[in-house]
């Protein structure tokens, strides 16, 4: 049967069926598309009761000691605020900060960047509720559980102050074990989430049963070497999101400060080991962070001779082109610093230095006959120099005969009368003093005198054995150095 055209106001059955199919197809296609459009960028809405009506900051961690601001929003009188943007936020852990930079809350910003939260200022963590972000639900689930454990442990420890009880200590130890087990299990069970990955990165290595030494005792050295070799097993160096959390920097600090022997060669080896892992993983941001952080940390060393670590890392990664730096000024400054430091590293001969003393005689550092020469660059008007001079004088008086110590004091100021007054004021006539009447020496460039006083310790061959050491530390260093020499001598005898 043939269908005739429909009267006005009626619907042809074929037309209706075809139209419905098109509508269903368009609905299936367009709704997901519209949903995708709606989910671009980020939208984080929340209410924290009791929050003052002020402007607040959303910032992500950069390591644990720094953060980078990404957005600001004003809270209304009810404590509600909204952070929105057209582009997705870099993923990581974010801080909600007050105008005084006080931390109010933390959020895990992963793939889900459209979510809401609610809490109150009485206890932000305990009362936090999340909608639309499984990562943040996990994050606060964990924090709330740990807070419960910590409350129990705190109560038991308070009772322990009143009376020592072995049973109570056992309970505390059991709770601490439960905390660790919960942490480990939580990280494993949620390994596919950003929260789980962050927690896994901070987790310790599971140690196997250690072999025993011939005397039957556990081989603790084997355990240590195993622990160090597997220290980074839980860290995914291909995931730059870890840069925007506290976990990576804490791990780096622990590896360098607690797991690595504190001498330049060991620190260089450990730094290279970590950077090599980042380079192999291929993530540019992770590579840049590891190189930057380790080089930056080495720039202000806490050990004698630590400048060697900075020079190595700067030459290999910055000047070697492995660190992507777009600012040519940065590379230029690093090259200048390396060029200054290389001749001044511990173990190198001290560069030549000749200055004029108060009688007008040219005094050369190379001509000083002493077992040890302390070279101090100072400014007579520098408050720190004046504060440390009595300690330096006391060290000299104590060791000038017993250890054969001499002091070569070089004034970096351009004021000869103040220089002479300083010598008289502190009674330093026994020292060898020098002044650059020619004004040709660039003390900053040639001897790294960035701050004063700058102290070098030289052996009898004028080789640098310490630098950047405080006057108050000289006695302790010389004791250590004498013991080191005695130990090395005993090894040669054997």
TrEMBL record:
Domain spans labelled Thioredoxin: 344-492
Compartment(s) where it occurs, according to its Swiss-Prot or TrEMBL record: Cell envelope
Domain of life: Bacteria
A Pfam family hit: Thioredoxin_8
This protein's record includes keyword Disulfide bond: yes
Keywords: Cytochrome c-type biogenesis, Disulfide bond, Redox-active center
Gene3D superfamilies listed in its UniProt record: Glutaredoxin
Any single GO CC term annotated in Swiss-Prot or TrEMBL for this entry: cell envelope
Main localization, broad class: other
Any one of the GO BP annotations: cytochrome complex assembly
Keyword Ribosomal protein annotated: no
Name of protein: Alkyl hydroperoxide reductase/ Thiol specific antioxidant/ Mal allergen
Organism: Runella slithyformis (strain ATCC 29530 / DSM 19594 / LMG 11500 / NCIMB 11436 / LSU 4)
């Amino acid at each position: 049967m043939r269908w005739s055209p429909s009267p006005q106001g009626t619907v042809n059955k074929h037309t209706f069926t075809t139209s419905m199919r098109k509508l269903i197809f368009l609905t299936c296609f367009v709704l997901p598309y519209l949903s995708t459009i709606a989910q671009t960028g980020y939208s984080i809405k929340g209410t924290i009761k009791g929050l003052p009506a002020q402007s607040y900051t959303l910032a992500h961690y950069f390591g644990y000691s720094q953060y980078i601001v990404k957005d600001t929003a004003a809270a209304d009188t009810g404590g509600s605020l909204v952070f929105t943007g057209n582009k997705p936020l870099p993923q990581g852990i974010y801080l909600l900060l007050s105008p005084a930079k006080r931390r109010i809350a933390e959020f895990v910003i992963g793939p889900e960047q459209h979510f809401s939260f609610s809490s109150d200022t009485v206890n932000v963590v305990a009362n936090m509720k999340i909608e639309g972000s499984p990562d943040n639900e996990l994050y606060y689930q964990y924090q709330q559980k740990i807070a419960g454990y910590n409350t129990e442990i705190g109560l038991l420890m308070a009772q322990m102050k009143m009376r020592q009880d072995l049973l109570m200590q056992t309970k505390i130890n059991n709770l601490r074990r439960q905390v660790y087990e919960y942490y480990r299990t939580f990280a494993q069970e949620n390994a596919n989430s950003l929260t789980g990955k962050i927690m896994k990165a901070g987790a310790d290595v599971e140690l196997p049963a250690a072999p025993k030494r011939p005397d039957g005792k556990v081989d603790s050295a084997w355990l240590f070497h195993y622990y160090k070799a597997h220290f980074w097993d839980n860290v995914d160096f291909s995931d730059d999101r870890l840069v925007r959390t506290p976990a990576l920097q804490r791990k780096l600090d622990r590896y360098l400060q607690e797991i690595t022997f504190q001498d330049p060669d060991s620190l260089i080896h450990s730094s290279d080991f970590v950077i090599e892992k980042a380079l192999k993983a291929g993530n540019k941001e992770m590579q840049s962070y590891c190189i930057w952080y380790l080089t930056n940390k080495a720039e202000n060393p806490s050990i004698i001779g630590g400048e060697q670590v900075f020079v190595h890392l700067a030459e290999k990664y910055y000047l070697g082109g492995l660190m992507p730096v777009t600012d040519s000024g940065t590379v230029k400054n690093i090259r200048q610093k390396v060029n200054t430091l290389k001749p001044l590293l511990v173990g190198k001969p001290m560069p030549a230095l000749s200055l004029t003393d108060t009688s007008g005689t040219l005094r050369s550092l190379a001509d000083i006959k002493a077992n040890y020469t302390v070279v101090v660059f100072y400014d007579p008007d520098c408050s720190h120099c004046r504060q440390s001079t009595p300690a330096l004088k006391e060290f000299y008086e104590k060791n000038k005969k017993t250890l054969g110590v001499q002091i070569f004091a070089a004034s970096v100021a351009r004021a000869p009368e103040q220089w002479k007054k300083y010598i008289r004021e502190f009674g330093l006539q026994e020292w060898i003093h020098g002044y650059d009447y020619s004004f040709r020496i660039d003390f900053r460039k040639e001897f790294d005198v960035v701050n004063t006083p700058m102290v070098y310790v030289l052996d009898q061959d004028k080789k640098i054995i310490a630098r950047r050491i405080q006057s108050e530390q000289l006695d302790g260093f010389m004791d250590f150095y004498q013991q080191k020499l005695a130990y090395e001598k005993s090894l040669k005898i054997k």
